[in-house]
What we know:
Blueprint: E1 16-21, E2 27-33, E3 36-41, E4 53-60, E5 62-67, E6 70-75, E7 79-82, E8 88-92, E9 97-103, H1 121-126, E10 131-133, H2 135-149, H3 153-168, E11 175-177, H4 192-205, H5 212-219, H6 223-234, H7 238-256, H8 261-267, H9 273-284, H10 288-305
Antiparallel strand pairs: 1-2, 1-9, 2-3, 4-7, 4-9, 5-6, 5-8, 7-10, 10-11
Helix pairs in contact: 2-3, 4-5, 7-8
Amino acid sequence: MRVEREKIQIPSGHSFRVLRWARSIRDVECVMAPGKMEKITGEGTRWHFHVEMELTLFTEGNGTRFVGDHIGSFEGGDLVLLGSRLPHYWHTRGNSGGISVQWHFPEGHPFWAFPENLALLELFERAGRGLRLSGSTATRISALLHEMMQAQGVEQLALLLRTLAMIAAAPEAERTFLSVRSFTLAAELHYQQSISKAMRHLIAHFREEVRLEDVLVLTDLSRPTFARQFKKHAGRTMSEFLNRLRLQAACRELLESERGVLEIAMGCGFTQVSFFNRLFRRLQKCSPTEYRTRRGREKGKRRSAF
């Protein structure tokens, strides 16, 4: 999970690239033409960013999604639009599969020579916070992404344009911001690797006691520098990031196990159940017990729909 700019290579003869994976987001294939693939190493398993925009669909799998200052769970059907230089990372649980499209149309690119495309400027700007697409919009775009893997040339470009137009015209209820703020990280930042080590440590040890002193030794940064750089990269303080990790794990376990709230809270790294309950209610707008009942009922309805 090294944090550095990913250098994406757009294939010759293409203005964007289409990727797919069937088991691991590390083992990715670039779709060159129908039936013609080129294997590449995916970067989604580490916290990273790139100047290219990205539209990613998980067709299967589940885990935790990190986009800017957002931390949340995802499962099959998750569809997210990411803006340029927006840091992101998918922590998958087991195997996963999906499709991703990446492109870079900066100011001055021939893409903007067509006046019709200027209507997409606002969408590209909004994508700087990450947009989760849902409802009928996600269903239709998912179908277009599958079509894109079987197309080439002008036909494939037309599908990308249709996809972008569809997202731009989608109802606001089906385009949800993920990150509270936009991120525009520079191409190379001196502190990226140090902050990457800190985030990797927090993700691996959030269930345990995490001491700031240990993190400072790991990153070789002073306390003021670490605090400033961590918030710049992650969008929140270390303690806020850690509490979000713990809360996200607790939410998942409330739905996947029958253990009591106290046991789950302590197992996820919280030392005071009163603090856990206050934080849970503030962020989820309900108690842990209400969350388990409500979300469990929603999952049951989704299963019965199939």
